Amino acid sequence: MADQAEWVKRPEAAIAAARCTETEYDALYARSLKDADGFWAEQAERLDWIAKPSTIADWSFDPVAIKWFSDGRLNICHSAVDRHVENGHGDAIALIFEPDDPKSDARQITYADLQREVVKMANTLKTMGVEKGDRVTIYMPMVPEGAFAMLACARIGAVHSVIFGGFSPEAIAGRVEDCESDWIVTADEGLRGGKRIPLKANVDKALEKVSVKAVLVLRHTGGDIAMSEGRDHWYHELSEGVSDSCPCEPMDAEDPLFILYTSGSTGKPKGVLHTTGGYAVWTETTFRYVFDYRPGEVYWCTADIGWVTGHSYIVYGPLLNRATALMFEGVPNYPDHDRFWAVCEKHRVNIFYTAPTAIRALMREGAGHVAKHDLSSLRLLGSVGEPINPEAWRWYHDHVGRGEAPIVDTWWQTETGGIMITTLPGAHDMKPGSAGKPFFGIVPELVENDGVVLEGKAEGNLCIARSWPGQARTVYGDHDRFVQTYFSTYPGKYFTGDGCRRDEDGYYWITGRVDDVINVSGHRMGTAEVESALVLHPKVSEAAVVGYPHDIKGQGIYCYVTLNAGEEPDGDLEAELRQWVRKEIGPIATPDHLHFTPALPKTRSGKIMRRILRKIAEQEYGSLGDTSTLADPGIVDALIETRKGNA
Ligand code: WT7
């Protein structure tokens, strides 16, 4: 179907205003491959370096050792904040904060304000004993102080590990323990859609399992919380009287900048590690070209800073470009389904970047909510996190973009640090549902299961043949796992875990994960994690979790569960298991569908046949494939019966 997909022409205005035309893209892309060192040395010039790098690319995928700009020295906070003030732009707006409650005041934070705030936070962290190289956990609501905390860590050379506010105490404890983090920065409570999120209480529960030296607490809602004497400190108290000067720590380009936990097909979430110089160059360059940002424009990415999108495209990429970035605390449907568009109108947003799941949810509420608002300021739209179905693309384009604003569908991952495949607004026409073309320096390859690299029009497993500056360097504390996960399936290449098709025009179409990772509302989840949570329940004997198509979320979480002998499933147990998974992982992992079964389909050697379970969850009963290797083929019929009965 999609091969004959319609082109959507980029508007003349985008071509006329383009920083990079199609011819320029072709030339720059060619140069980025032919003369990678020269190309990236030039891009790196836009940052402030304490010592300019003379070595640019220095990497190998076999054995795996990745370095960029390795003899360079810099501090990313200096380039994102201080230099703009020094260059006379202290009055430019860095962040606009739009609170959950539209009746509360929005905040505007200039670059000069940002510098003061980051210095204050940095000195407060130092007061608590944080030093260069230490890991600091950040578990914050979507408020500017979350960004201040990240930048403050970068400023003093501490490594931040941000945990999304939707994760449970168990998840916090696991991550704090994994990276041996002695400090947590949090808030009393978060606020989302009028509901209070008990952040500090969650931290307290996590700290029954692990211990830290100190917790810094931002007073945000003023809600009632417990403070543990000697361990917990109010930010407004501890920051009182700290010095208003805090020089940026000189960092080596390959010094760690942050750890971000993400799910894989097996085991516990991995702490993906990004370093300083390459990440700075990659986020600066991708933001500059993909969003074609111009000073004075208002840019809004609706992600949370707890995900990589928030790291790269709310905090680092925009600020390195001296952009004005909007930070929104709330949700798309509060107080009503027009909130996104109300915020776009209120702050005259020019560039808007969101996820397909949000678009689908808002599309269902009707275009009337969009029509209520003046969206004439929007000139560019972006999509990220999962494949966007052409229907949602069209709605986004026609209603939100008035049929004029180009859409950039940006494919990338936590591990890639920034955008890898996308169209550029002035350079490329679009095809709804396709991410488009590789960014500078990116060499995508489509590989068959046996390792054969396909040429031209083809479909296969998406690998990246060469390193790029923003690539993750390792899994924190477990380099072997890094090598195993990303470089062992197709030796010498980075394997993304995604399936992908390349069409006759060289456009890439991501078809979704080919491993046991599912994408629920743009959130990445390992099916193994949900299974481990389920089997921890005393009544559960076995569990197998797969993704299945979900109208709004993209994929839903489908759980096959077998109970211990003597246990009977009922509505109470179902509710209890849902609650159980929420407690173990967090609300984002809440099962959508529980399917109780006396047994799971297994091979004679005892391996669960996930392929069959996936098909049954998808209600694709006709294409179950070979079931002859099953120990007990009768199970499949029973599973189908149940699925049909409750579909
Ligand atoms: C996975 C990465 C990219 C930051 C947010 C998610 C899927 C991401 C797209 C897109 C199709 C996409 C992939 C990828 N994905 N963007 N534009 N089109 N699929 O980061 O949590 O690391 O998840 O999200 O499957 O592997 P993440």
TrEMBL record:
SUPFAM superfamilies: Acetyl-CoA synthetase-like. Residues 529-607 form the AMP-binding enzyme C-terminal domain. Transmembrane segments: none annotated. This is Acetyl-coenzyme A synthetase. CoA binds at R192, G193, G194, K195, T309, N333, S521, R582. The keyword DNA-binding does not apply. Acetylated. Deacetylation by the SIR2-homolog deacetylase activates the enzyme. It comes from Qipengyuania pelagi. One of its GO terms (biological process) is acetyl-CoA biosynthetic process from acetate. Its EC number is 6.2.1.1. Mg(2+) binds at V535, H537, V540. Keywords: Acetylation, ATP-binding, Ligase, Magnesium, Metal-binding, Nucleotide-binding. Belongs to the ATP-dependent AMP-binding enzyme family. It comes from the Bacteria. Catalyzes the conversion of acetate into acetyl-CoA (AcCoA), an essential intermediate at the junction of anabolic and catabolic pathways. AcsA undergoes a two-step reaction. In the first half reaction, AcsA combines acetate with ATP to form acetyl-adenylate (AcAMP) intermediate. In the second half reaction, it can then transfer the acetyl group from AcAMP to the sulfhydryl group of CoA, forming the product AcCoA. ATP binds at G385, E386, P387, D409, T410, W411, W412, Q413, T414, D498, R513, R524. GO terms for cellular component: cytosol. Residues 25-80 form the Acetyl-coenzyme A synthetase N-terminal domain. It catalyses: acetate + ATP + CoA = acetyl-CoA + AMP + diphosphate. Its cofactor is Mg(2+). Residues 87-466 form the AMP-dependent synthetase/ligase domain. GO terms for molecular function: acetate-CoA ligase activity; AMP binding; ATP binding; metal ion binding. The modification N6-acetyllysine is found at K607. InterPro entries: Ac_CoA_lig, ACAS_N, AMP-bd_C, AMP-bd_C_sf, AMP-binding_CS, AMP-dep_synth/lig_dom, ANL_N_sf.
